[in-house]
Amino acid sequence: MKKAVILGCCGSGKSRFARRLRDATGLPLICLDNVWWKPDRTHISREEFDAALAAILSADAWIIDGDYCRSYEPRISACDTVFFLDYSEDVCLSGIRERIGKARPDMPWVENEVDPALVKEVQRYRREKRPVVLELISRYREKEIHIFSARNEAETWIKQLHL
User: Fold this and answer.
1) For residue range 106-139, what is the model confidence (pLDDT) as tens digits?
2) Total domain count for the chain?
3) What is the per-residue DSSP string for the chain?
4) 108 CB-near residues (< 8 Å, 6+ apart)
5) 34 lies in a domain?
6) How far apart are CA 125 and CA 9, in angstroms?
7) What is the four-CA torsion angle of 102, 29, 23, 155, rounded to 10 degrees?
8) Among 25, 75, 142, 146, which is least packed, fewest CB within 10 Å?
9) What's the pLDDT score for residue 109?
């Protein structure tokens, strides 16, 4: 594994899994939230994001953390390994609630309350984005694919890297 993407709904734990994968492999970690968002909660333009992503994808090795559906295909095409945290709505909503008030290295600010727009994103994910991820994964069968349907599955997998 030299190039890995981690996909999943908001609150699924992508960033935590990404940090643990980085620690186990030594691969550089890029958090797309830190590429897209500025500390003042504004964001860069799509053109700037696309240019930054193209530069990231051209590197020899990386872990990319972030869902960003508009960039699924270029990332999946460029990677050798896909991790999909395919968790329930309840698990993801719980993940969002658990991170309130905590500084996170994957975000340029601290969330002090649950964002209603984020809740709606979670509620739509399984219906709107999950099918897109699964369809793309089915098209890129030559990739190493890991689909976890529960946190303990991802935890078990990551622990085996430390053996």
Assistant:
1) 777 778 899 899 999 999 999 999 999 999 999 9
2) 1
3) --EEEEEE-TTS-HHHHHHHHHHHH---EEEHHHHHB-TTS-B--HHHHHHHHHHHHTSSSEEEE---GGGHHHHHHH-SEEEEE---HHHHHHHHHHTTT---TTSSS---S--HHHHHHHHHHHHHTHHHHHHHHHH-TTSEEEEESSHHHHHHHHHHTT-
4) 33, 34, 37, 38, 39
5) yes
6) 6
7) 70
8) 142
9) 75
pLDDT score recorded for residue 108: 76
Give the model's pLDDT for residue 104: 80
Q: Which residues of 14-36 are buried (b: 16+ CB within 10 A; e: fewer)?
A: bbbbbbbbbeeeebebbbbbbbb
Residue labelled with tokens 């599955």: 153
How many whole angstroms from its chain centre is CA 135?
17
pLDDT classification of 103: cutoffs 50, 70, 90: confident
The residue length of the chain stands at: 163
The CA-to-CA distance between both ends of the chain, in Å, stands at 16
Measured distance CA(3)–CA(7) in Å, rounded: 13
CATH number at residue 100: 3.40.50.300
Token pair listed for 157: 């997998």
Type of residue at 11: G
Largest CA distance in the chain: 43
